[in-house]
Specification:
single chain; about 270 residues; mainly beta; 12-stranded antiparallel β-barrel; 1 helix; globular
């Protein structure tokens, strides 16, 4: 496990030269932001989940988002997992692909209140496709829909998001994720960002530092839930954004699945 995190960090930071990042997107939740037509935004994230009984799961995910038209975009996110857990869960460094998350997003509201201040809202829909291997994915096509709101007011940013996923596959023999129970999923997220630097923008575009705080919640229709507190640090430069954060459990009822005790996040966004 130890060599994996430096390798993930090096792979992410090696891609730094690009051109223009999106504004104040949280680390672990959707935002009502959308790339311009013809713009591709890759995002790479590395996460390490530490569970009870010294079990660990590493995740590397790549998301590509492309602007189809003004306020209309499509995105695809594919994770790769590596498990160091107890049998029959993925163990001994076992690799596997996760399920592909495919979404279309329409931003129906954009009201700019000033040079920085803005209010935006979007709806999205799509499906989770069964590309996962072994215990890392389901065996059905799971449709989903949701909405996101983003507000930026001076040095303060706010995000709200909700998503419903209809799980079509049955309960899995190895219950690693919430979707393995075969129940539908509800994601509820709230986030706050405070711009640490600069205090005010001048004529030149400069890198900005933000402190972020999120509450990321997952509920199943079968009564399970996971609520995580997610503080982070975000650096947004004109050409890229770097994300560093942690996740701590506030309330967890995972049933037969392992319970997360801590998660570490390292991410990078680019603009081509």
């Amino acid at each position: 496990m130890k060599p994996a995190l430096p390798l993930l960090a090096g792979a992410a930071l090696a891609a730094l030269p690009a051109a223009g990042a999106r504004a104040q997107e949280m680390l672990s939740m959707p935002a009502a932001t959308s790339p311009s037509p013809g713009v591709l935004i890759p995002r790479v994230q590395a996460r390490a989940y530490f569970y009870d009984d010294d079990q660990t799961l590493l995740e590397q995910s790549v998301r590509l988002e492309y602007g189809l038209a003004r306020d209309l975009s499509v995105s695809a996110e594919l994770p790769l997992f590596q498990g160091f857990m107890d049998e029959p869960l993925p163990s001994d460094g076992e690799f596997g692909l996760g399920d592909l998350d495919l979404l279309v997003e329409w931003r129906f509201l954009r009201k700019d209140l000033g040079p920085v201040d803005t209010i935006r809202a979007s709806i999205f829909g799509g499906a989770v496709l069964p590309t996962g291997t072994d215990a890392y994915g389901g065996d059905g096509v799971d449709p989903c829909a949701g909405a996101a709101f983003t507000g930026i007011f001076g040095r303060h940013g706010f995000d709200l998001a909700a998503r419903y996923t209809h799980v079509t596959s049955g309960a899995a023999f190895v219950p690693l994720f919430a979707s393995d129970d075969g129940d539908d999923l509800v994601d509820l997220d709230a986030g706050y960002a405070y711009r640490l630097y600069p205090e005010a923008y001048g004529e030149e575009r400069v890198a900005a530092w933000y402190a972020t705080l999120e509450v990321n919640s997952l509920f199943t229709t079968g009564g399970r839930h996971e609520v995580l507190l997610s503080p982070g640090l975000l650096l947004e430069a004109p050409d890229y954004a770097v994300e560093i954060g942690v996740q701590l459990p506030l309330s967890v009822d995972s049933g037969d699945r392992p319970e997360v005790e801590l998660a570490l996040i390292l991410g990078l966004r680019l603009l081509f």
